[in-house]
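So, can you check what follows?
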Amino acid sequence: MEITKANKETVNILQELLQKNYDAEAGYKQIMQKAENNLLKNWLQIKAKQRSQFANELDSLIRDLNATPVADGSLLGSAHRAWIDLKTTLSSNTDEAILEECIRGEKASVDEYENQLEKVSNYSDINNVIYKQLVDIKTALNTVKRLEDIAN
């Protein structure tokens, strides 16, 4: 199957989302180790596994388009994890700092997914996967906002 210009654009979109999910999974795993509350640790572990599942789904879509998926996250994601590490180290309330960063990260994911979803509307299978992941991320955002309200 020849890779068309439209397929290349779609692959690039999927690659970006794949990287974001690698970054999110690594971020959740990192902050899970710093969390003090066991319920929060469990929730973070579930989110890390979910983002791994998202990455697997995106990887499969990329392969279906005869392209090779990226292997890891972005430099920006690594820098953000370093910032989170510093912020949680300096914070007097580690769990609150973690929740704030989760909210920030999930909002960024929602924005990214919404922007990319518009670009793949011609591909129903891809659109369905991205839309389902977006719904799950929005659910996570709503949950983490409630957790932050409880923590305050």
